Amino acid sequence: MNQYVITNCIKLKYALLITPLFFLTAIILFLYLKNALQVDQYILIQSDFFYFLNATLSQFSTVIVNLTQLGDEIVVLSLLSIFVLYVPKLWEALISSSLVSCIFTSSLKKIFAVPRPAAVFDPHSFVIIGKTLNGHNSLPSGHSVTIFTILTVLLFAFMPKNLNYKILWYLFIMGMGLILVLTRVGVGAHYPLDTIIGGIIGYVSGLLGIFINKKYPIWTWVNQKKYYPIFMLFFLICSMSIISKIMDENLFILYVALASLIISLYKIIYVYNKK
User: Fold this and answer.
1) 18, 57, 178, 202: which has the fewest C-beta neighbours closer than 10 Å?
2) Is 33 within the bounds of a domain?
3) What pLDDT digit, counting tens, does each position of 161-173 carry?
4) Is 38 a member of any domain?
């Protein structure tokens, strides 16, 4: 499986960046034509859609509050932790992509400084699930960037060879990504465009991470047994973080993430100690 991922990643071309950059340009043009490049107008033009999506999605509160956790990097990487042993190439790409996405997210949030819905609208006028977020860091949605960064790496790493399966795989990943990012609107944390723009940035981050990893193989040590203690420590820290989250929120997805970490930790310790 690891060789399959290596082969897929080698085949990727920079031309794949054209599509997400086209969509970003289209959104910027749309905002320009709507005179919505200013923060107030950016919020205003999507307020009705925000209220509609929030009211609709919040009806499935149990589902969306679990799904939105997949935008937390610790949670989603915990679910993929077992691949360190069996598909280390995937983790090499994930590390690079995650670093790129962190740079994009932190930088753009500071540049745009768009206030969260709870900082603009009456908190009683829409549904807020979980903690009330009212800072000025709404654009882009960090959870959406993370979700699409991870999904993009998975998309191209495990891309099938058959054309029909490729199409189905692409539609499945993109559909899943869209559902997951819109949960951020459902919980009242972001405006719709925050999540769409965040998803596109995540897609770009995933591709850039793969390209960087292909040109500069700085994470090849991931596949070396002598470095497994680094992942043991990382998984242990993640486990403690997940346990803390469970004590605070007690969500099903967190138990799944914790179980995944425990299994991965056991397997990696077993492999490391095996002569």
Assistant:
1) 18
2) no
3) 999 999 999 999 9
4) no
